[in-house]
Amino acid sequence: MTNTGRHMSTKFIYFFGALGGLLFGYDTGVISGAMLFINKELNIAAGSFANGFITASVLLGAILGAAIIGPLSDRLGRKKLLLTAAVIFFVGAMGSGFAPEYYVLVSSRILLGVAVGAASALIPTYLAELAPAEKRGGIGTLFQLMIMTGIFLAYVSNEWLSPQGMFGLSSAVGWRWMLGLAAVPAAILFFGGLFLPESPRFLVKKGQVDEAHKVLLQINPNEKAVEEELHDIKLQAQIPSGGFKELFGHMSRPVLIMAIGLAIFQQVMGCNTVLYYAPTIFISAGFSEHFALQSHIIIGIFNVVVTAIAVMIMDKIDRKKMLTFGAIGMGVSLFVMSAAMLVLKAGGGNLGSWICVIALTLYIAFFSATWGPVMWVMIGEAFPLNIRGLGNSFGAVVNWTANFAVSQSFPMLLIAFTPAHAANAEGQGIAKLFLIYGALCFAAIWFIAKYTIETRNRSLESIEADLRSQAHAKGYTEEGEPTSTKPLSN
Ligand code: BGC
Predict the structure, then answer these.
(1) Which residues form the Major facilitator superfamily (MFS) profile domain (predicted)?
(2) Is residue 38 assigned to a domain?
(3) Of 275, 280, 443, 487, which is the most buried if we count CB atoms within 10 A?
């Protein structure tokens, strides 16, 4: 194969490897716009349980999908499951688009959620296992880039397919197209996925060393580096596959705590509320509805651009530094935004409104460049090979559960924090809530310093070797069993 051919195929592999992220972003992002019309068409009262459940169903499905994929992925491999997820994406999208009534719609949304959750647990592992160590962060960030692109496309389709949009569709039909269109990238993912290689780490684990060698060479033409990598993978693959005992055992405990913490903090710092409530925030800050909706699209483009920059810098800066920097930036932006919104009550005027817009945009930029991608990259690379699928799936379950908790509690907290009689009452409520998310950003800095390990520019095998030797030093065997019968302290 020529160099150019090799280069092309690497791009193909990474593109299709990460493409599930686009469906993740589209399917979670599209509902806010579609909801406006679904309520009318299916006779659902705004603000009712049934209404909230249309959004929540994807999140619940995602928790389920992320949970079932872990044990399967260590047994069946990453590729087969990615193809299965593509089929579920397709069926879920068609089911949502053609849903004749409410229950078909929510069942299809749960199904879609299963695929979203599965993709979120599979793709970071798959990309981490394919990429050479020195490029792993950037390649892992392609997943986030796809998520952001998916969210952006969802905003665009919400705008174009609404009755006022460029296609002038009726309100009875537009939302069906919004939801159903996700079947197109699902089909592309399936057909592209057929040509993807299986993860070389998984192949070695299954004894297919020659095949693994071929895949590694396709990705990294440096024969000597590939030989060394294969040697290390083979050593690690001799360790028997693990289960929950190993996941919760002493050896993997440091990375388990890291994954749980990163997954929770990524959500409780408020990323999804800021993203989805951006138009409401703009309106509360005194801008027109038109400005708010237009700027949502502009923020969508901005997100994609910032994440694309993150792809380029991800392997040049330590992951821990990026997380700390991101948490400071997000925390300060939230505090500034809150202050501006509270001052608006006292007649902060135009300047306050613009400070709000700038702080919100900066918050999203900090998130997109740091916590958005780094969380997924790190949980994809941190766990030892014999429980990698399981560990990543566990991290994804925690992330989706935290996402669910934050999205479900937001409207209730907003009511609780909104003063009964005040000009711009909702803005006041949002401002107070953002102070809490801001404080949690600073708590995240403490967590990073205390509980995370640096993974940049290290082979997956060296990260794993360190975990084993640390466990050994604390008096545990390589498999995490105590070396003596004496009780051990942590
Ligand atoms: C987060 C999602 C979020 C998305 C876009 C991901 O990294 O896990 O919860 O919706 O980024 O902001």
Answers:
(1) 13-456
(2) yes
(3) 275
Of residues 386, 358, 376, the one with CA closest to residue 117: 376
Taking only the tens place, the pLDDT of each residue in 169-205 is 888 899 999 999 999 999 999 999 999 999 999 999 9
Do residues 180 and 282 both lie within one domain?
no
- Give the model's pLDDT for residue 6: 47
Distance 112 CA to ligand 1 centre (A): 16
Q: Which CATH number goes with the domain that contains 317?
A: 1.20.1250.20
Of 367, 360, 355, the residue nearest 295 (C-alpha): 360
- Residue 94 forms part of a structural domain: yes
- Nearest atom, ligand 1, residue 403 CA: 9
Q: Is 36 left (phi over 0), alpha (psi -120 to 50) or beta?
A: alpha
The answer to the question of residue 203 being in a domain is no
Which residue has the least CA distance to atom 6 on ligand 1? 372
**In the structure, which protein residues have their CB atom closer than 6 angstroms to any atom of ligand 1?**
28, 144, 147, 151, 266, 271-272, 275, 372, 376, 399, 403
pLDDT digits (tens, 9 = 90+) for 86-133: 999 999 999 999 999 999 999 999 999 999 999 999 999 999 999 988
pLDDT at 5 over 50: no
301 and 378 share one domain:
yes
DSSP characters for 242-295? --HHHHTSTTTHHHHHHHHHHHHHHHHTTHHHHHHHHHHHHHHTT--HHHHHHH
Q: What is the mean pLDDT of residues 484-488?
A: 47
Please check whether residues 289 and 435 belong to one and the same domain: yes
- With the most atoms of ligand 1 within 8 angstroms of its CB, the residue from 116, 272, 408 to mutate is 272
Regarding whether 179 and 250 lie in a shared domain, the answer is: no
Query: From the alpha carbon of 275, which atom of ligand 1 is closest?
Result: 12
Rounded distance from Cα 17 to ligand 1 centre (Å): 18
pTM: 0.90
Full domain range(s) for residue 297: 243-490
Domain count of the chain? 2
